[in-house]
Structure formats: C-alpha cells, structure tokens
Specification:
By secondary structure, the protein is an alpha+beta fold. The protein has a 5-stranded mixed beta sheet. A hairpin with a 5-residue loop joins strand 8 and strand 9. The N and C termini lie far apart (43 Å). The relative contact order is 0.20.
Length: 156
C-alpha cells in the first residue's frame, strides 16, 4: 500500500515537471522585423493557439502572446503575469487549450489575451489591428523590458 502511494506521488511530481515541456512542443515562435519603430504580425499567422512573438530590447527578450480569439479578433498581450512578475516563471504556456501561468498555475481562456484587467493574467500592451496585420510600437515594448529582466520563458 505504501509503495503505491509513493509511486503515485512520484508520477505526479514527474508529470508536473514534464508538463511545460509538452506544452511548448507544438508552440510557434517568431521574431518579426522592426520597421519604422514597429513590429508587425500577420493576422494570417494567428490561430486559437498562442503565437509567441520575440522582440530584442537591448539584449532583453520581450515576448508577446498573439492569438485569434473566439470572435476572430486579433489579440496581443505581453507574455508575463501582472501579479507574478518579477518571478522568472511569470509566463504563460498553453495547456489543454488554455493559458496557464507557470508561476502560480492560474488558468485563462485565449479570449483574455489583450484585455485590460488586474491580478494574475497576461499583461496588456497597446497594439493596433489594421487590415491584415497587428502592429506594436517598439517604444512600448522597450518600456516593458524591465519586466522581462529575470524572465525565463521559452523563446523557441
């Protein structure tokens, strides 16, 4: 009986540590070109799964989450948690079709990306949707670089 409990506990711990690896195996990462002080994300690249968008702000990776919401709108947020930052694990990975904070475990729908709110959720950033693209000013990304100084999320 005791061996079964130990085996279940070991399996649970192993699963918890392996989960982030499984969550990023199908993830898509891009590093868009900076042009005229903006990065541009094609709406055609968006789906109901997160697109992780990397931007280099003077040696610090600032990462965005971009998705197509259930209403087909393009949504963008910073891939860090308002409440958990500056923890190195204050980032979100997709698990079972939802975003999960890798620091505290809170779970969010993809529709929460890009919506202003407070607490544990993907941090909002200004962005513009026009035609077939989404743009974010690099000055806005640079202003949030300090939030990513200790960040240890996946970048590829």
């Amino acid at each position: 009986m005791k061996k079964n409990k130990i085996a279940r506990l070991f399996a649970s711990v192993l699963f918890m540590f392996a989960l982030p690896v499984f969550a990023i195996s199908g993830a898509k990462f891009i590093t868009p070109v900076v042009k005229d002080g903006k990065i541009t994300i094609s709406k055609a690249e968006l789906s109901n799964h997160p697109l992780y968008v990397n931007y280099d702000s003077k040696g610090i990776t600032v990462q965005l989450i971009a998705v197509k919401a259930s209403d087909n709108s393009a949504r963008v947020s910073l891939n860090t948690c308002q409440a958990c930052n500056p923890s190195p694990r204050a980032f979100f990975l997709e698990q079972n079709g939802r975003l999960v904070c890798q620091n505290c475990g809170n779970v969010f729908k993809m529709d929460s990306v890009g919506t202003p709110s407070f607490g544990c959720n993907p941090m909002s950033i200004p962005y513009e949707v026009s035609g077939n693209s989404v743009t974010v000013k690099t000055s806005d990304l640079d202003s949030f670089a300090e939030k990513f100084k200790n960040w240890k999320g996946p970048v590829k």
